[in-house]
């Protein structure tokens, strides 16, 4: 198999090639202003080398996900996972030599930097027997290796810069070949840019960037003006994997395109001033808020992780015994459940003292001429079950939860059963406001402490992904809620 690919042609029409084996040892820096064709160049490089070497793409704008349609890359949506899951995914990627695209377009800048840093550090820290060769392509590298402090915290900046420095400075011995692209060399950390031995310089207009590009290409300052005159898709290349002297190259065509690209101009609407004003002000339909649909690949990956982590040996998968009912008569049990449902549906019922609620309960039962047969402590637990939507203690589908909750303190039972019920039904994780009402508080801090206490008691596992969505798992049941904005 040839390790040389064609990325384009020079001015005479002769093909310009890149030696992939040499590129793995010497790395590549791509620079050009927005619209110069950097993404097109990276796409050409990825398409032509897809069958030669493993590829890992850090994609902050989601431009490269279409490679999966043709070349089988695995798309990893960074916003769908938390830190430990990113670590596990990156470790498997390194081990199984999967070509992947880590798309970060669903995250804010600081979350993008943190997610990419965790991902890159895991690739870098792989065991020695997994140091397989891989191209690690980082688009918009100035975001992840900024030359100066910006709008993110110092801790995140140091974490991201350290990961990029490891990739470019020490990654070669571990099989990782960094290919970084940036709009401006002046915004990219010098110790990261300096480690590349191959360069493809596109159109740029600022003097400071032209001067740095000319220095990297070994050109005199007066020759730097030609960098400003480069056309879109044209680059000056230099390096052991490209050419020993600067060579102009026009990047060849690609087979895939970014999903968000609009080619050329579009015709304007034909509506006139009055008609357009009517469309803007009189449309009876309420505009729907844009909603980002999750990709299929992250969902499948999450299910795979859950299956592995939630595996229960056959010997331990034993159904708990069904607790005996507190009532002898079917009609009495149904009446008591109905009373509890009515009480739990009343506004602010959870903010009332248990003794007051118990007194109200006994009065309602006497009016129905029924004798519930339990004391205040039993009432607390039955009322908590009703608040969580499980008023009947004989309901078969909740017996596992009741057995699990038998040692949960009375004051924590309602929120715990609410979380567990959502996990059993695969429903969305209750938000803090809902849990606060169920817990009988208006303090968000108490809810955080409640979740921490339940987690320390090994009753739940709280997970927050990089997109800020929280889900809660019930380890004893091997189930988890659907993620929702915390």
From TrEMBL:
Domain of life (superkingdom): Bacteria
Gene3D superfamilies found in the cross-reference section: P-loop containing nucleotide triphosphate hydrolases
InterPro entries, per database record: ATPase_Atu1862_pred, HerA-like, HerA_central, P-loop_NTPase
SUPFAM superfamilies according to UniProt: P-loop containing nucleoside triphosphate hydrolases
Start and end residues of each Helicase HerA central domain: 10-75
One matching Pfam family: DUF87
Name assigned to this protein: Helicase HerA central domain-containing protein
Organism: Novosphingobium hassiacum
């Amino acid at each position: 198999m040839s390790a040389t690919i064609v990325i384009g042609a020079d001015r005479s029409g002769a093909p310009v090639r890149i030696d992939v084996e040499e590129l793995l040892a010497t790395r590549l820096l791509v620079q050009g202003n927005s619209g110069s064709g950097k993404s097109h160049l990276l796409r050409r490089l990825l398409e032509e080398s897809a069958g030669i070497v493993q590829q890992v793409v850090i994609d902050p704008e989601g431009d490269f996900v279409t490679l999966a349609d043709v070349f089988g890359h695995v798309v990893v949506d960074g916003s769908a996972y938390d830190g430990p899951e990113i670590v596990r995914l990156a470790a498997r990627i390194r081990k199984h030599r999967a070509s992947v695209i880590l798309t970060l377009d669903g995250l804010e800048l600081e979350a993008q930097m943190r997610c990419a840093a965790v991902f890159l550090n895991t690739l870098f820290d792989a065991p020695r027997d997994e140091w397989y060769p891989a191209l690690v392509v980082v688009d918009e590298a100035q975001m992840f290796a900024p030359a100066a402090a910006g709008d993110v915290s110092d801790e995140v900046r140091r974490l991201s810069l350290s990961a990029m420095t490891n990739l470019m400075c020490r990654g070669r011995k571990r099989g990782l070949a960094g290919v970084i692209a940036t709009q401006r060399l002046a915004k990219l950390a010098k110790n990261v840019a300096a480690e590349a031995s191959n360069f493809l310089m596109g159109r740029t207009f600022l003097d400071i960037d032209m001067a740095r590009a000319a220095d990297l290409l070994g050109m005199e300052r007066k020759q730097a003006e030609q960098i400003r005159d480069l056309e879109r898709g044209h680059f000056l290349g230099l390096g052991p994997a490209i050419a020993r002297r600067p060579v102009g190259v026009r990047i060849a065509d690609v087979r895939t395109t970014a999903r968000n690209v609009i080619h050329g101009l579009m015709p304007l609407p034909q509506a006139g001033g009055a008609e357009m004003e009517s469309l803007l002000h009189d449309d009876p339909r309420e505009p729907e808020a844009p909603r980002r649909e999750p990709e299929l690949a992250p969902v499948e990956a999450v299910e795979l992780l859950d299956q592995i982590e939630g595996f229960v040996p056959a010997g331990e998968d034993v159904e708990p015994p069904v607790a005996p009912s507190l009532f002898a008569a079917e009609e009495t049990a149904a009446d008591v459940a109905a009373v509890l449902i009515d009480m739990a549906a009343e506004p602010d019922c959870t903010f009332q003292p248990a003794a007051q609620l118990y007194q109200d309960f006994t009065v309602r039962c006497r009016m129905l001429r029924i004798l519930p047969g339990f004391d205040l402590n039993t009432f607390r637990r039955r009322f908590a079950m009703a608040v969580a939507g499980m008023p009947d203690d004989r309901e078969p589908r909740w017996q596992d939860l009741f057995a699990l909750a038998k040692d949960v303190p009375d004051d924590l039972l309602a929120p715990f059963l609410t979380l567990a019920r959502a996990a059993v039904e695969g429903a969305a994780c209750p938000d803090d406001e809902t849990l606060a009402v169920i817990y009988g508080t208006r303090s968000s801090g108490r809810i955080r402490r409640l979740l921490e206490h339940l987690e320390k008691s090994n009753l739940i596992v709280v997970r927050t992904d990089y997109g800020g969505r929280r889900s809660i798992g019930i380890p004893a049941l091997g189930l988890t809620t659907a993620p929702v904005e915390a």
